[in-house]
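Protein kinase domain-containing protein, Polarella glacialis. Tokens?
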Amino acid sequence: MANVRFEEGNVFGPEQDQFKVGRRLARGGQGTVYQCTRLSQGHEYAVKVIDSTAERFKSQQGEQNLRREIRNMEELHHPSVVNLLMHMWEDGLCLIVMDLAAGGDMHNKVLGEVDVALKAGVPFRGLGGSELASKHVTRQILDGLGYMHSHNIIHRDMKLENVLIVQSHPYATSPQSLATSEAVPTELLDVKITDLGLSKRVAAASPKSVFKRSFTKVGSPDFVAPEVLEGTYDHMADFWSFGVMLYALLCGQWPFEITSLDPDQHREAVSRIKASEPWQSATEEARSFVQGLLTIDRDERLSLVGCLSHAWLAKSSGKLIVNAAGLGEVPLKGVVRKVTGCAGYAVDSVKLDFWDGSNCQHGGKGGDARKSWQLRPDELIMEVVQEERWEFLGNALIFITSHTRVISIRGTEARKRRLFVAPVGCQIAGLQFDGSELVGIHLEKVGTDGLGSVAAIGGRVGSAVDQVVLILRDGSSREYGDPGGSQRGPWALQAEEYLVSVEQLVRDAFLGNSLVLRSSLGNIFKLRGMEASRSRRFAAPSCSQICGLEFNGSLLTGVQTCPEDGDTSQGLRMHPVIADEKR
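Tokens:
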């Protein structure tokens, strides 16, 4: 039945929200993946089709793994993870609709580049011919892993096949990088972590221990950490697996010759990293980074914060761009000319006028208050927040621009918020509270190296936000509020990532109902109390701007982005928006 229904051009899904099947992307032991198009919107996704009636599926705990994968995917939404749109069961088939990553997996990508080098009779010099390409992938994988771990989920099967390529970009050098000897990569890859079939959600053991130990021996032999075979492990096993992956990205081969999964024999085999020719040609910082990940003692192994503060990642040059117009900085050009909103006790309508003369409008007529905001030619919309409501367009719609402006369309029933934005070239390094209310931020300039002052963010929440902690890169920390509630985080920032905005949902006690911080890379870190109102928010990824909205009834469900240079002829992308998690 699956073969009949899932052919190119066929349709699946409920009548009110159907999808059209496209080309087949991959086939694996669990199922087959196709490209598909959502007919109501024209957006492209991937759909994994699993035949739950197959004997192999029944005999290998297939349903248990599948339901765990779906459950964990529902918990996560992040740019570096393949995100779930929906799942459905039809006639013995499970259909998982998720983000499309049509560029293949990293295993085949590396194999292809190794093959090209062999045929050309030249040494393999790493992914893209430069360590910069591996650094770009590394930052994304660490970002995704850190996000998963912050939600108490261990992947448990990190390998090159489970990292998918979304798209590739040219690499533009800067005048500073031209003075260095570091090779320029042929391309940079945007990637996502996939396949949560073996992932496991575990409870936090204590504020000092991120995870309780797990006891099931799972994973792929070439990537499995020594402690997994010994039967007691935690999230640090994912970092070992990533160390094996990174060695392969740099060297085109595995770091060990694994002949047995007996714990003692395996430990002996992984006690020494293979001294291949590409390994010896790698920089000292790269070798140190991999060695830190492939440390047998998990307590000495590089953690997320250790990775992001390591010299190999801190040392970088150049800039990722969407177009290949040449060297140097990409000029900023906004696409939205004016924002207009009407509101009464809720938001009745919002209209975006564009510099090319077109416009888009959402909502209907009504509202006592009408207001417009004119944007400058080089001003970009970077973030949008909606306070949910079951009717109209929510209680509030808030836009944040690259010029630190806050454009707020608020109904009279909107909750009180405090929002602070760092000017361009500055970063948030501290917060200022007057009792329970956020009244200011401490700013620092972003240095020429681009390094952020804050290495990680954590806190504690109960009915409200009890505490927020900013861990600085020098090892010190800044704590606000008092201990109480449940631990959240810590969430690590990348080396060249820094905080640019903070928003508080105000209440008369504690540190408010919620605190939300946004980074320079578009990542959002949330501390939400149980009494926080439901909000939807989206921050534009690095090198992009917001250029469109999508509503389903009263809810903001999608945001369209385009390149920061304003070129809407390429790089347009629609991103799903989901509500804040209930915690």
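The chain is about 20% helix and 35% strand.
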